[in-house]
């Protein structure tokens, strides 16, 4: 078995100054021919792949931090870190690095960080090491000036850090701080504030370890209370940490090292967030080591808690024990919530291990028990924990839900408890309900469902959801829409129904036959459209959006359901009740009808015109409804004259071509034209194989062709007389005049007239005599064209 001393985690620092976990493996050192030198090698413990191959450069500055960390930079913006499982392994590799660089292993940094001009570097190198003034009250001002002058120079900053570290200066300064507080020496306290703040900006781990030790950290915080900018009114950070902030050990922590690490991390985090002033742009990078210190402490705490099986077992046992009193359970849930929030700072690999551990310990059954309790605060914390689990791995949550359905009734299923809490949210703004709706949406989203060789999660879970849960989700909607208007129309109820409709609309978009069967069998759309009568516009719009999504699917099952139940009626009623107001309701309804017209949904077009035309015919500020009427009439024309429709089919399907040439522009437009636009296009048909076109009068095939056209013209005359208003405005709607016709057989001089007069397109004017032009030639080509409107 591999020596655990060499077990390490590899980290890299990203652009946000956060450490990314690159994997766990075992480190070794050896000569690498390709790199021409001694190198550090880390191979992954999972598959033996190479996680790191880094040459030990003689000029690279390596730092040892916290006894188990080695940090260095390989490029200007590429920082690396090795976090060792054991101190012995870190010491062993550190000795190898120091041996290559010719350094004493007792140092914590192998090189001085230099980033100065050659002249400054020469001056500093030629000068002896930095000498600190005596640590006495009379020299505090001198020391504060020395610290301030050293910070801009990286080399002087490094020399100052070494001097402070080697002379044990921090403990001496903290002794002076206690003296200044006893003497109420305001000037001395102000100088100490500047000195301690400067020491933080030295960005050195060895100094942090002294400052954050149990005996020093509170005095360090005390020094930072006396900001000169506050004008002699110190802050009370120590009072808060010792009197207000209390560490609640809800489950006894047996490991004293873990307890000390938790205390230290909380205090250091407090220093970073509350005590230290907001760093300037130039100072921000000087606190990178402080960020790293907190980050690695958190990683270590989570790891130690995960490894303590007794602690986690006791935690979940007390959470689910009915004998646990309410106050204790409240503390336990809050601890677990904080524990999960703490894990969000971890890298994906660490977080994966964390949640797997919680899952194995039974966190989901525990949450099910907690969510069934009456305490609102406890349920709120449990909801937050549940959200962490759903965001981490929705498939794990879905698997648990389906497994428990085999043993429990629908009423006590975890997902139904979530739905009930969403429905019963007491918050007037429904903040909790919005959060829970988002979680439900994640759980029913097919995009994050997996498919394996043995099963399809999407099919299994959606079948379960519609069988066991959908009736719970839709219960408030069905209860509130029994009449022609909502039973309850207050703001909070309307908000809740809007949330439910949002989720149902999501289901319409992403689920197929499950939601279709549910809507049709339960008559859901009719109940939803009752909400168009709500006094709250946002709820009425949610109902319209739901119907619009259904129509957008262009599914004939849905269309037949809509027509059978006359479900456009509440939409038309809402449109008429809205009157002449130009608002979102008006636009949403018109857009729905416009979609039916543009997409030419034939069944719905016929249904709307046949049942609601009288109510909509006077709407003339948009051409949508007259356009629907025109679509409907075009459909009727095709139905009333099957022979003409058959001829069009022949024209479309048996196109004759004179030679093997490419299509010209006009022919291409005809070939791609819709059937409804055929009247506006030009068609070419081949002559019959057994009949020839006769120049003497167009007998045979020409007579067969003329018969349906003559009948068509007679119908147009009758139609123009009966419906002058519609045809009068249809020219502006469709961009063309009443159709005229021209037949021509190319290649002959014989002509017959059947052309409409120039005024035939005027409103209310019946078409006059027309001209048929017939030309017969060797090509035998027949052209039928409709002139475009002006």
TrEMBL record:
<dbReference type="InterPro" id="IPR055236">
    <property type="entry name" value="EVH1_PP4R3"/>
</dbReference>
<dbReference type="Pfam" id="PF22972">
    <property type="entry name" value="EVH1_PP4R3"/>
</dbReference>
<dbReference type="InterPro" id="IPR016024">
    <property type="entry name" value="ARM-type_fold"/>
</dbReference>
<comment type="function">
    <text>Regulatory subunit of serine/threonine-protein phosphatase 4.</text>
</comment>
<dbReference type="InterPro" id="IPR011993">
    <property type="entry name" value="PH-like_dom_sf"/>
</dbReference>
<feature type="compositionally biased region" description="Low complexity">
    <location>
        <begin position="756"/>
        <end position="770"/>
    </location>
</feature>
<dbReference type="InterPro" id="IPR011989">
    <property type="entry name" value="ARM-like"/>
</dbReference>
<dbReference type="GO" id="GO:0006974">
    <property type="term" value="P:DNA damage response"/>
</dbReference>
<dbReference type="GO" id="GO:0072542">
    <property type="term" value="F:protein phosphatase activator activity"/>
</dbReference>
<protein>
    <recommendedName>
        <fullName>Serine/threonine-protein phosphatase 4 regulatory subunit 3</fullName>
    </recommendedName>
</protein>
<feature type="compositionally biased region" description="Polar residues">
    <location>
        <begin position="745"/>
        <end position="755"/>
    </location>
</feature>
<feature type="domain" description="Serine/threonine-protein phosphatase 4 regulatory subunit 3-like central">
    <location>
        <begin position="142"/>
        <end position="634"/>
    </location>
</feature>
<dbReference type="GO" id="GO:0030289">
    <property type="term" value="C:protein phosphatase 4 complex"/>
</dbReference>
<dbReference type="GO" id="GO:0005654">
    <property type="term" value="C:nucleoplasm"/>
</dbReference>
<dbReference type="InterPro" id="IPR051137">
    <property type="entry name" value="PP4R3-like"/>
</dbReference>
<feature type="compositionally biased region" description="Basic and acidic residues">
    <location>
        <begin position="712"/>
        <end position="727"/>
    </location>
</feature>
<feature type="region of interest" description="Disordered">
    <location>
        <begin position="684"/>
        <end position="790"/>
    </location>
</feature>
<feature type="domain" description="PP4R3 EVH1-like">
    <location>
        <begin position="5"/>
        <end position="101"/>
    </location>
</feature>
<feature type="compositionally biased region" description="Polar residues">
    <location>
        <begin position="771"/>
        <end position="782"/>
    </location>
</feature>
<comment type="similarity">
    <text>Belongs to the SMEK family.</text>
</comment>
<dbReference type="Pfam" id="PF04802">
    <property type="entry name" value="PP4R3"/>
</dbReference>
<dbReference type="InterPro" id="IPR006887">
    <property type="entry name" value="P4R3-like_central_dom"/>
</dbReference>
């Amino acid at each position: 078995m591999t020596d655990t001393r060499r077990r390490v985690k590899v980290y890299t620092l990203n652009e946000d100054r956060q450490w990314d976990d690159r994997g766990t493996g075992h480190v070794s050192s050896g000569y690498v021919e390709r790199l021409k030198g001694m190198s550090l090698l880390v191979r992954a413990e999972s598959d033996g792949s190479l996680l790191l191959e880094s040459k030990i450069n003689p000029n690279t500055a390596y730092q040892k931090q916290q006894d188990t960390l080695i940090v260095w930079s390989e490029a200007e913006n590429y920082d690396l870190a090795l976090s060792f499982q054991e101190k012995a392994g870190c010491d062993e590799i550190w000795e190898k690095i120091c041996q290559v660089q010719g350094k004493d292993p007792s140092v914590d940094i192998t090189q001085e960080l230099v980033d100065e001009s050659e002249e400054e570097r020469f001056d500093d190198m030629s000068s002896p090491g930095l000498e600190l003034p005596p640590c006495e009250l009379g020299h505090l001002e001198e020391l504060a000036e020395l610290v301030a002058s050293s910070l801009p120079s990286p080399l002087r900053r490094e020399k100052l850090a070494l001097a402070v570290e080697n002379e044990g200066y921090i403990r001496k300064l903290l002794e002076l701080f206690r003296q200044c507080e006893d003497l109420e020496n305001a000037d001395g306290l102000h100088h100490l504030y500047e000195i301690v703040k400067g020491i933080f900006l030295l960005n050195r781990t060895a100094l942090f370890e002294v400052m954050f030790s149990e005996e020093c950290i509170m005095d360090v915080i005390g020094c930072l209370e006396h900001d000169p900018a506050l004008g002699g009114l110190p802050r009370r950070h120590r009072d808060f940490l010792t009197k207000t902030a209390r560490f609640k050990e809800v489950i006894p922590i047996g490991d004293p090292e873990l307890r000390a690490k938790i205390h230290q991390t909380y205090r250091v985090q407090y220093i970073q967030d509350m005590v230290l002033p907001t760093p300037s742009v130039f100072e921000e990078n000087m606190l990178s080591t402080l960020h790293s210190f907190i980050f690695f402490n958190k990683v270590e705490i989570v790891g130690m808690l995960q490894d303590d099986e007794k602690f986690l077992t006791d935690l979940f046992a007390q959470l689910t024990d009915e004998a646990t009193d309410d106050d204790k359970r409240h503390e336990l849930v809050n601890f677990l919530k904080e524990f999960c929030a703490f894990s969000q700072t971890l890298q994906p690999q660490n977080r994966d291990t964390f949640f797997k551990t919680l899952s194995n310990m039974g966190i989901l059954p525990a949450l099910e028990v907690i969510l069934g309790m009456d305490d609102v605060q406890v349920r709120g914390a449990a909801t937050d924990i549940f959200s962490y689990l759903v965001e981490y791995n929705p498939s794990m949550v879905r698997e648990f839900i389906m497994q428990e359905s085999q043993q429990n009734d629908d009423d006590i299923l975890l997902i139904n408890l979530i739905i009930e809490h969403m429905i019963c949210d007491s918050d007037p703004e429904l903040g909790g309900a919005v959060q829970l709706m988002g979680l439900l949406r994640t759980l029913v989203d097919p995009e994050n469902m997996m498919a394996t060789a043995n099963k399809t999660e999407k099919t299994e879970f959606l079948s379960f959801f519609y069988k066991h849960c959908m009736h719970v989700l839709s219960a408030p909607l069905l209860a509130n829409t029994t009449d022609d208007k909502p039973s309850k129309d207050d703001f909070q109820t309307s908000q809740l129904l809007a949330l439910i409709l949002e989720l149902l609309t999501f289901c319409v978009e992403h689920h197929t036959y499950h939601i279709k069967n549910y809507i049709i069998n339960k008559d859901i759309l009719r109940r939803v459209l009752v909400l168009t009568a709500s006094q709250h516009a946002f709820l009425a719009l949610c109902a319209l959006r739901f119907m619009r999504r259904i129509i957008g699917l262009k599914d004939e099952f849905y269309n037949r359901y809509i027509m059978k139940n006359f479900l456009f009626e509440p939409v038309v009623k809402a449109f008429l009740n809205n009157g002449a107001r130009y608002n979102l309701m008006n636009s949403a309804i018109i857009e729905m009808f416009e979609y039916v017209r543009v997409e030419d949904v034939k069944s719905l077009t016929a249904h709307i015109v046949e049942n609601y035309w009288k109510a909509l015919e006077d709407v003339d500020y948009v051409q949508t409804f007259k356009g629907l009427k025109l679509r409907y009439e075009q459909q009727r024309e095709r139905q009333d004259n099957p022979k003409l429709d058959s001829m069009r089919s022949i024209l479309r399907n048996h196109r004759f071509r004179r030679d093997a040439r490419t299509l010209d522009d006009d022919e291409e437009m005809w070939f791609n034209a819709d059937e409804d636009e055929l009247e506006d296009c030009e068609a070419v048909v081949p002559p019959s194989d057994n009949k020839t076109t006769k120049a003497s009068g167009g007998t045979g095939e020409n007579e067969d062709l003329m018969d349906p056209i003559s009948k068509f013209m007679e119908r147009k005359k009758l139609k123009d007389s009966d419906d002058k208003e519609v045809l009068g405005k249809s020219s502006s709607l469709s961009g063309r005049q009443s159709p005229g016709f021209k037949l021509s057989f190319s290649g002959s001089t014989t002509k017959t007239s059947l052309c409409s007069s120039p005024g035939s397109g005027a409103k209310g004017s019946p078409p006059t005599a027309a001209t048929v032009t017939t030309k017969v030639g060797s090509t035998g080509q027949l052209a039928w064209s409709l002139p475009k409107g002006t």
